[in-house]
Design a protein that fits this description.
The chain is of the alpha/beta class. The protein is built from 22 helices and 14 strands. The chain has a seven-stranded parallel beta sheet with strand order 8-9-10-11-12-13-14. It has a five-stranded mixed beta sheet with strand order 2-4-7-6-5, with helices on both faces. The N and C termini lie far apart (60 Å).
Length: 557
């Protein structure tokens, strides 16, 4: 089993424990182990063979034994036992927005419900009322969630597509008959939600490759002479595009898409061109290369001068980082230590404010203790600079939940909406505009509150918000969490045209979630942004000067 399959098994165990066991620490242990395995750079099989798997941070005696069993046998008796306790459809219920694992467990225990269809019937027939805390409004929300979930069937977040695509590409690279293989389609274009995974395969012996593919995927069947489809993990459609080495570049461009871009390219080139690589293809067509992220339409083909897109390596530090002081899973010391290991010049800690009581938001009485620890730990990670911040709630009337005196204690403030998402467009827009008027606000967090494949964002008048943000000097966050990716890349150019500055944040609640800077950088590129448009690509000295200048604009307390 590869590390991702092992991590998924550990995560599944964690979910089953949370469904059936009140021991949250046990479930959290398997969740930590899953993240630890996913983040490994070393070969997990070698770690098990040498006994060093127990040296990996996040792996304990119990979880390590499960990892050993998975590596040696490809399965674990413990997971089989847990699966036997629940119907196969139980986890389909988790895809319903607003239905937590705890609620799924309660529904199953009290009503024996184990599928979406059974839950829908119970909600319509009023049987959920028999459960304490479940009333007519809960049933209504569940029915809305079921409808939303069905609308998003067979859609997956980008990281899922990347994981599947890269694992298959690596396997293809080990086949003698394969001369080249690349992930294509919407995954290569870094679309935030994907429906399938595409791979382009250069080979002179298609049959030899197909024989090996039958061992890697399920239901392999032809669409035409050059294209085959299959299922990976029994749920994700995969398309394999076969080509010869002398047309690998052309096939890769067409399989990457979009259809609109590929057609526009061929029209501009004036003919269909064969090439071994994409770069050669663009050169033969006398067209400046267009990065895959920018291929949703043909607009960039018309521009001779292109924006140099931001790279992950341009990012020097970040903000919007949570710790165990609120709802983070790692301590201040751990979050700062890993930030320094990653080579950051600066990091901004921003635990939740008091209105976010459900996320352990800090009251004014708790802040001095947190600030004291930040100051002490900052010395341990010097010369990396630690900025003191907060993710403060934008209340329904547009005010910030901390008062001016408390907000004045921070180096920066991320202002975010976390409640009353069902306001109409005008109300929500006015709410955010008022927040932008607060001189303490530095960043506007996750602009629409969307959670991909879980809930749509609230609606706002984007241009009014962009105009006010530019006028007040408030930056708009690009939230790199793969479940958010908010602000939507489709609106970035409109904000940029109005003079808005962006900042890529991970919204990290654990050390592994710093990786969300990767997805944040991808969507920034997709939105056409250069490093100049991103605040946290600036060196420490400029960031310090900017934040200090921002502080000077505040009215004296």
């Amino acid at each position: 089993m590869d590390k991702f399959a092992i991590a998924r098994a550990l995560d599944e165990i964690s979910s089953y424990i949370e469904l059936s066991d009140e021991n949250k620490f046990k479930a959290r242990a398997f969740e930590r182990a899953s993240r630890a395995i996913s983040a490994l750079d070393e070969d997990v099989e070698l770690l098990v063979k040498t006994g060093k798997i127990y040296d990996v941070e996040g792996i304990g005696k119990a979880t390590g034994a499960i990892v050993e069993e998975l590596v040696k046998t490809g399965k674990t008796a413990y997971l089989d036992e847990l699966r036997a306790q629940f119907p196969p459809g139980i986890f389909e219920l988790m895809r319903i927005p607003g239905l937590s694992l705890k609620k799924v467990g309660v529904i199953h225990q009290q009503l024996g419900i184990g599928s979406v269809e059974e839950l829908e019937a119970a909600a319509r027939e009023g049987r959920l009322n028999a459960i304490k805390g479940f009333g007519a409004k809960t049933a209504e929300k569940i029915l809305e969630g079921i409808a939303f979930s069905r609308k998003n069937t067979s859609r997956f977040l980008l990281p899922v597509g990347i994981e599947v695509g890269e694992l298959l590409r690596e396997a293809l690279a080990g086949i003698d008959a394969v001369e080249d293989a690349e992930v294509a389609g919407s995954v290569r274009r870094r679309l935030e939600v994907i429906r399938n995974v595409n791979l382009v395969i250069s080979t002179r012996d298609v049959e030899a490759v197909l024989e090996r593919l039958r061992e890697l995927v399920e239901n392999l069947s032809p669409i035409d002479e050059q294209t085959y489809k299959a299922l990976a993990r029994n749920e994700i459609e995969v398309l394999f595009h076969f080509t010869t080495p002398n047309d690998f570049g052309g096939t890769l461009l067409r399989a990457t898409g979009s259809t609109e871009f590929a057609q526009a390219f061929e029209e501009k080139a004036g003919k269909r061109i064969k090439a071994k690589t994409e770069h050669e293809l663009f050169e033969k067509a006398d067209i400046p290369f267009v990065e895959p992220e920018r291929r949703e339409d043909g607009a960039d083909l018309q521009r001779r001068k292109r924006t140099k897109l931001v790279h992950l390596s341009d990012i020097r530090g970040t903000f919007h980082v949570h710790t165990t002081w609120s709802d983070g899973r790692n301590t201040v010391a751990e979050m700062l230590g890993v930030a320094k290991e990653r080579g950051f010049e600066y990091v901004g800690i921003s635990d939740h404010s008091k209105a976010a009581y459900y996320a352990g938001g800090l009251t004014e009485k708790q802040l001095p203790q947190q600030q004291s620890e930040l100051a002490a730990r900052a010395k341990d990670v010097a010369p990396m600079r630690v900025f003191r911040g907060t993710e403060a709630d934008i209340l329904p009337d547009g005010t910030i939940d901390y008062g001016a005196k408390t907000l004045g204690l921070f180096d920066f403030v991320v202002a975010s909406v976390h409640s009353q998402f069902k306001m109409d467009k005008d109300e929500m827009t006015d709410r955010i505009l008022r927040a932008l008027d607060d001189p303490h606000v530095t960043f506007l967090g996750h602009l629409t509150g969307r959670k991909l494949l879980v809930r749509d964002g609230y609606t706002v008048e984007y241009d009014r918000i962009f105009d006010r943000a530019a006028e007040r000097g408030v930056m708009i966050e690009i939230n790199g969490n793969p479940r958010r990716l908010d602000i939507d890349w489709r609106h970035m150019q409109r904000a940029l045209d109005r003079g808005v500055m962006f900042s890529i944040h991970p919204d990290a609640h654990s050390i592994n979630e710093y990786n969300a800077l990767v997805t944040g950088a991808w969507v920034a590129r997709k939105g056409g942004l250069s490093a100049k448009a991103i605040f946290n690509t600036k060196p420490l000295e400029e960031v310090e000067e900017w934040l200090e200048a921002r502080r000077s604009l505040r009215s004296p307390n």
